[in-house]
Specification:
binds NADP nicotinamide-adenine-dinucleotide phosphate, 6-stranded parallel β-sheet, zinc, alpha/beta, 349 residues, globular, single chain, D-isomer_DH_CS1, 2 domains, plasmid, binds zinc ion, alcohol dehydrogenase (NADP+) activity, Rossmann fold
Length: 349
């Protein structure tokens, strides 16, 4: 089936409207009319081949909310008319240790990404959510609490679960002192979710103007990370930090803010490596540095249900598809309040 999508033809050209062909609906598949798709910084990295893995043409988008319009014969989990979500994964091997443990994001064969992956039925690319429709195996489709405003739900599918997963995996508890680095798409969800879990949140930002927003979103302390005196004032005060920055930077000033046994979790994926941190304070305070990749389908559903109960969505700026390039520029400048979301129905293809 041919549909309209926003397509990157190569790393240098702006995204433009073009036709793509989706696979025919298989027995396990759900066909979704896309209502909203969030704009993740990963989409920008991929559209511009900043991780050197992009294959063109490429359709970005992995924060998808839409309505089920068709189901295959074997689909039991979703029905026509349901409001559903799709995140970063659309398939995995289903057999390895991690798939069996419901941790598909760590599939030993590598999960199939929502875009720039290989569709196992067609051998063609998978196409992302900057499009009118998507066809996805039911296992990778989650249910959206209908009490929530849907445009603000879209960013939960990547930004939300990417910060939720390490908060849960590393067992952050009420009262824990949690730092969040960078108030962008991921960072603002980390502030909201960590504070809803009862943590006391410190936001580190390079943008002094974001302080009032950070407090409104749930932070109790805001630190301008380029101000050495402010950084020095919070030495050894935190249990756990999530670093959501998309650019290479020095990790040592953040390690200095961790208490003994503290952990720094990196979720930002810069195009060039961070410089190696100084191990001496890590040794003497038994510090850990971890990475964390998105979250499982089960964690995505848990996070959505939690957001439904706590009335949490992303703070968004709604755009039409034609505005994507301006959105990318603002995102590069750290000027997003705090996630762009494409309204598919407002888009002129
Ligand atoms: P974003 O909205 O652009 O936010 C990034 C934030 O980082 C900015 O708002 C800014 O916050 C801060 N920042 C930017 N440049 C900086 C610099 N040079 N030095 C210090 N801080 C800087 O991006 P996002 O969508 O949240 O994504 C963040 C990163 O996570 C990207 O690399 C993305 O690819 C990655 N990601 C990873 C996963 C995963 O599974 N691990 C999933 C999704 C995305 P302030 O203005 O507050 O400083
Ligand atoms: Zn993403
Ligand atoms: Zn697997």
């Amino acid at each position: 089936m041919k549909i309209n999508a926003l397509v990157a033809q190569d790393a240098a050209q702006p995204l433009s409207s073009a036709h793509i062909t989706l696979r025919a609906v298989q027995p396990q598949d759900v066909k979704i009319e896309i209502l909203y798709c969030g704009v993740c910084h990963s989409d920008l990295h991929m559209a511009r081949n900043e991780w050197a893995v992009s294959r063109y043409p490429l359709v970005p988008g992995h924060e998808i909310v839409g309505r089920v319009v068709e189901t295959g014969d074997a689909v039991s989990q979703h029905r026509k008319g349901d409001i559903v979500g799709v995140g970063v994964m659309v398939d995995s091997c289903r057999q390895c240790h991690f798939c069996q443990q419901q941790e598909e994001q760590y599939c030993e064969a590598g999960f199939t990404a929502t875009y720039n992956g290989i569709d196992k039925y067609t051998g063609d690319s998978t196409w992302g959510g900057y499009a009118q429709h998507v066809v996805v195996d039911q296992h990778f489709v989650v249910s959206v609490p209908e009490s929530l405003p849907l445009a603000g739900v879209a960013p939960l599918l990547c930004a939300g679960v990417t910060v939720w997963s390490p908060l849960r995996h590393f067992n952050v508890q009420p009262g824990d002192k949690v730092g969040v680095v960078g108030l962008g798409g991921l960072g603002h969800m980390a502030v909201k979710l960590a504070s809803a879990l009862g943590a006391e949140v410190t936001l580190f930002t390079t943008s002094p103007g974001k302080g009032a927003d950070a407090r409104r979103l749930g932070a109790s302390r805001v630190v301008v990370s380029r101000d050495a005196a402010q950084m020095a004032a919070c030495q050894t005060s935190l249990d756990f930090i999530i670093d959501c920055v998309a650019a290479p930077h020095d990790l040592d000033p953040y390690l200095a803010t961790l208490k003994t046994n503290g952990r720094l979790v990196l979720v930002g994926i810069p195009d060039h490596p961070h410089q190696s941190p100084n191990v001496t304070p890590m040794v003497f305070r038994r510090l850990s540095i971890s990475g964390s990749s998105i979250g499982s389908i089960q964690e995505t559903q848990e996070m959505l249900d939690f957001c439904g109960r706590h009335n949490i969505t992303a703070d968004i700026e709604l755009i039409a598809g034609e505005e994507i390039e301006q959105a990318f520029v603002r995102m590069l400048n750290g000027d997003v309040k705090y996630r762009f979301v494409i309204d598919m129905q407002a888009t002129r293809w």
